[in-house]
């Protein structure tokens, strides 16, 4: 075929390459993507590209360059933008449309048409986004590359798939990525889940640096950048000047301030709470060992819970189940029962229907005096994101929600949105990262006592007032960043400074944090702060519009006005650009070319494609012999046999080998498949046992260990060794517990995040025993295990 790169459906792919440039300033990033299109066909085409963006991104620029002419898109009400686009195409003019998905704010679609034969176009897309703060103080920028097909709840009425996708190894266009980092603080390091070229510092102060993606990057993962600064927890304020051409008093005409607050307070962990663990058990969780990681994580969580709390475990897919009829008090008996259940947990519940179990959980009465903490583990591939966020928000007063996005392609809008609306914290686990450290970090946050009565007060010069753009702060956590945006209205009488004070109460004790800032606006920021402030206000208004019935249209109108004024995307607007006088009227329909996006090459993704229904009514599962195995194909057979309808279907591989079969010939078809994919027996090796998890498994719910053969094995000793070396005057369970603590401190300090809460329970248990010979026991334990741990290191 002489038309260049092609899709799985053998159609040409007009997108040839994507270049991404990132400008990081402190904890805000501006991302500019350039997409190169070329029509090598003999007829005009319309290219349609559905792709992911960060869920909290503010898209603020969209333009197209065709030859020497450039057209810059305007933000218009969505219906008007669609009408203008259709009118332009019917007149033979080139038009470009960019819009946010109605179901999820982290999915956008771009339409490029009409692109004449032999014509090229360069599309420029720009957005700004905040960098999320990781538990280790790194600032995380994610460039989503993988867009897995989103799960469509049954009965949703959508007949067409959300996106055309192919395995990452078959993506027919290239990606280049570079970033420039600038900060008032020195840059310690920049890391990534992808191969990077060495960091290049641009000055001796190390406050400016550049980094590029290494050669040979594959589209098999999202590109994740982690930026580390020295003195990361320093509060900061940026005052940005308004746009000269904008009307004074308007959002874009007035200065806007962005405050980054890191409240610091000390408090003992709460020894109560109702902990609900909601685990995704859909088919996609079977990929890459995700469900196994979830099982190990549940073990750590269950061992780390405080005595006196309550808990329950829920699994969800197409349906959901729960371990106990209602939350139960944490004890040795209930913990053991939960651990037995966790051992057999598998990814066997089908799709990813998260709305139903959430509704069920919220209907359950809360346990009195036990603050509810919801932990959600999912690979985040759902279509009805906005409905989920609305549900979490409407129940935010009764719980805190902590979320964990597992694997490539997890929806940032779902993961970060649920945590934000539920007053918790979001974490992402990609590549070979371990889930357990991040979950335990979030559990420590969840055990912080609730902060209540939060208020924000401003001290500003006479004549100046602050109009909040952010929703009211409802949660604060020690050391966790809180962002506040506000519009500064009025004329400054000459004073150069202001301040903001955040007051709150925790455990009955009032506290406050104050931040002073200069009022001299910064004019060299590209209106980044204004656009992020506008995006924050737009998202709040969109939530309000979805919840309100009578005022819904009025709020929608306000969102459209704000979106048009600020040039920032919203759910009700679209970017539209028309190249006037660019061609003759098109006769007949344009050839539509769907640009595929990379997906994780697993059964869930294949199943989503398999159930696509093309215009000709044929079901066409596409089988690529290089990337699918026999087990996957047998899953296909089960899926088709369960459909129960007489559809025509075909099967083909990359060589266009294929035949068509009626539904009744499914077994004949699969026999053909079996011959193409001969089964190779794989040796079944038992999974390796993690020594740390083995040690933690042996701990009792109240925090102690006992001298048993399994403990001796975990310590690398014999049962006789443990008994012989025990000081005479110490009880066996105390001796076993001290040995476990010494082993953790002596051999597993690099994993301290994972066992810290387990060790705290053990130390509390030892203290309660009022042991008088701790020093002698520690010395004996060091001798036995070959360690040099001090009693003070153990916290005793």
Radius of gyration: 29 Å
Helix content: 25-40%
Number of strands: 36
* CATH secondary-structure class of the largest domain: Mainly Beta
What would you say this structure looks like, in words?
The protein is α+β, with helices and mostly antiparallel strands. It folds into five domains: 15-223 and 565-579, Immunoglobulin-like, CATH 2.60.40; 236-262 and 451-551, Immunoglobulin-like (Sandwich), CATH 2.60.40; 274-446, von Willebrand factor, type A domain (Rossmann fold); 613-676, no CATH class; 691-794, no CATH class. The strands form eight sheets. The chain has an eight-stranded mixed beta sheet with strand order 5-4-9-2-1-13-16-15. It is globular, with a radius of gyration of 29 Å. The N and C termini lie far apart (74 Å). Mean pLDDT is 81; it is low at 1-9, 151-162 and 601-666.
Task: Give the key terms.
Rossmann fold; Immunoglobulin-like; seven-stranded mixed sheet; 796 residues; single chain; alpha+beta
How is this fold's topology laid out?
Layout: E1 15-25, E2 28-38, E3 45-52, E4 58-66, E5 69-72, E6 74-77, H1 78-90, E7 94-100, E8 107-115, E9 120-130, E10 132-133, E11 139-143, E12 165-167, E13 174-182, E14 187-192, E15 200-201, E16 208-212, E17 223-229, E18 236-240, E19 256-261, E20 274-280, H2 290-304, E21 310-316, E22 320-322, E23 328-329, H3 332-343, H4 355-363, E24 372-378, H5 385-394, E25 399-406, H6 412-421, E26 426-429, H7 435-446, E27 451-459, E28 464-468, E29 482-490, E30 497-506, E31 509-518, H8 528-547, H9 552-566, E32 573-579, E33 591-595, E34 597-599, H10 603-610, H11 630-643, E35 649-652, E36 658-661, H12 666-676, H13 691-697, H14 709-715, H15 719-725, H16 732-747, H17 752-769, H18 774-785
Parallel strand pairs: 1-13, 3-33, 12-34, 20-21, 20-24, 24-25, 25-26
Antiparallel strand pairs: 1-2, 2-9, 3-8, 4-5, 4-9, 6-32, 7-8, 7-32, 10-11, 11-17, 13-16, 14-17, 15-16, 18-19, 19-29, 21-22, 21-23, 27-30, 28-29, 30-31, 35-36
């Amino acid at each position: 075929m002489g038309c260049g790169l092609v899709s799985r459906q053998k159609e040409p792919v007009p997108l040839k390459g994507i270049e991404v440039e990132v400008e990081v300033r402190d904890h805000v990033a501006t991302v500019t993507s350039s997409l190169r299109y070329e029509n090598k066909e003999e007829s005009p085409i319309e290219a349609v590209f559905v792709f992911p963006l960060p869920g909290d991104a503010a898209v603020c620029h969209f333009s197209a360059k065709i030859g020497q002419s450039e057209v810059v898109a305007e933000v218009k009400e969505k219906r008007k933008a669609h009408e203008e686009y259709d009118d332009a195409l019917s007149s033979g003019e080139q038009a470009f449309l960019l819009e946010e998905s109605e179901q999820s704010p982290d999915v956008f679609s771009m339409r490029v048409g009409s692109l004449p034969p032999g014509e090229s176009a360069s599309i420029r897309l720009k957005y700004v986004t905040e960098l999320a703060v990781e538990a280790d103080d790194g600032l995380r920028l994610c460039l989503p590359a993988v867009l897995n097909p989103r799960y469509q709840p049954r009965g949703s009425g959508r007949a067409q798939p959300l996106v055309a996708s192919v395995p990452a190894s078959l993506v027919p266009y290239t990606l280049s990525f570079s970033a420039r980092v600038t900060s008032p603080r020195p840059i310690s390091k920049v890391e990534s889940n992808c191969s990077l070229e060495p960091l290049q510092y641009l000055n001796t102060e190390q406050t400016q640096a550049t980094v590029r993606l290494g050669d040979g990057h594959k589209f098999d993962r999202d590109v994740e950048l982690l930026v580390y600064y020295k003195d990361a927890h320093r509060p900061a304020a940026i005052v940005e000047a308004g746009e000269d051409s904008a009307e004074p008093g308007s959002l874009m005409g007035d200065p806007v301030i962005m405050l980054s607050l890191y409240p610091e307070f000390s408090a003992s962990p709460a020894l109560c709470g109702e902990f609900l663990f909601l685990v995704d058990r859909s088919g996609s969780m079977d990929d890459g060992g995700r469900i196994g990681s979830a099982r190990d994580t549940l073990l750590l969580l269950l061992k780390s819970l405080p005595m006196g709390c309550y808990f329950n475990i829920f699994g969800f897919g197409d349906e959901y189940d729960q371990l106990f009829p209602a939350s139960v008090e944490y004890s040795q008996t209930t913990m053991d029962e939960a651990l037995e259940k966790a051992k057999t947990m598998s990814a066997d519940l089908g799709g990813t229907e998260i709305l139903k179990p959430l509704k069920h959980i919220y209907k359950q009465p809360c346990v009195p005096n036990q603050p509810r903490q919801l932990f959600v583990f999912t690979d985040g591939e759902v279509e009805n994101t906005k409905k989920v966020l609305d549900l979490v928000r409407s129940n935010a007063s009764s719980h805190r929600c902590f979320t964990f996005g597992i694997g490539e392609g997890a929806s940032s809008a779902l993961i970060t949105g649920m945590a934000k609306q539920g007053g918790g914290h979001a974490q992402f686990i990609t590549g070979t990262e371990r889930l357990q450290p991040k979950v335990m970090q979030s559990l420590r946050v969840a055990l912080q006592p609730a902060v209540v009565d939060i208020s924000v007060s401003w001290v500003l010069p006479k004549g100046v007032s602050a109009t909040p753009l952010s929703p009211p702060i409802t949660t604060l956590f020690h050391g966790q960043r809180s962002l506040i945006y506000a519009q500064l209205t009025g004329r400054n009488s000459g004073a150069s400074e202001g301040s903001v004070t955040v007051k709150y109460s925790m455990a009955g004790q009032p506290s406050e944090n104050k931040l002073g800032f200069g009022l001299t606006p910064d004019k060299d920021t590209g209106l980044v702060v204004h656009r992020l402030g506008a995006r924050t206000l737009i998202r709040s208004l969109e939530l309000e519009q979805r919840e309100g019935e009578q005022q819904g249209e009025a709020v929608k109108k306000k969102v459209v006005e704000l979106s048009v004024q600020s040039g920032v995307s919203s759910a009700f607007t679209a970017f539209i650009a028309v190249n006037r006088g660019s061609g003759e009227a098109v006769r007949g329909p344009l050839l539509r070319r769907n640009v595929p996006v990379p997906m994780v090459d697993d059964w869930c993704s294949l199943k989503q494609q398999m159930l696509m229904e093309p215009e000709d009514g044929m079901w066409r599962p596409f089988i690529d012999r290089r990337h699918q195995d026999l087990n996957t194909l047998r899953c296909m057979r089960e899926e088709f046999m369960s459909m129960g309808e007489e559809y025509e279907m075909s099967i083909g591989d990359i060589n266009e080998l294929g035949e068509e079969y009626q539904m009744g010939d499914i077994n004949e078809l699969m026999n053909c498949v079996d011959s193409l994919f001969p089964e190779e027996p794989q040796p079944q090796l038992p999974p390796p046992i993690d020594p740390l998890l083995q040690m933690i498994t042996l701990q009792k719910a109240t925090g102690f260990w006992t001298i048993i053969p399994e403990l001796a094995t975990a310590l690398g000793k014999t049962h006789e060794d443990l008994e012989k070396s025990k000081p005479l005057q110490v009880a066996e369970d105390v001796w076993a517990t001290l040995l476990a603590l010494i082993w953790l401190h002596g051999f597993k300090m690099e994993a301290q995040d994972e066992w810290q809460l387990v060790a705290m329970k053990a130390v509390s248990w030892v203290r309660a025993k009022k042991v008088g010979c701790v020093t002698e026991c520690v010395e004996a334990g060091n001798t036995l295990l070959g360690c040099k741990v001090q009693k003070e290191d153990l916290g005793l």
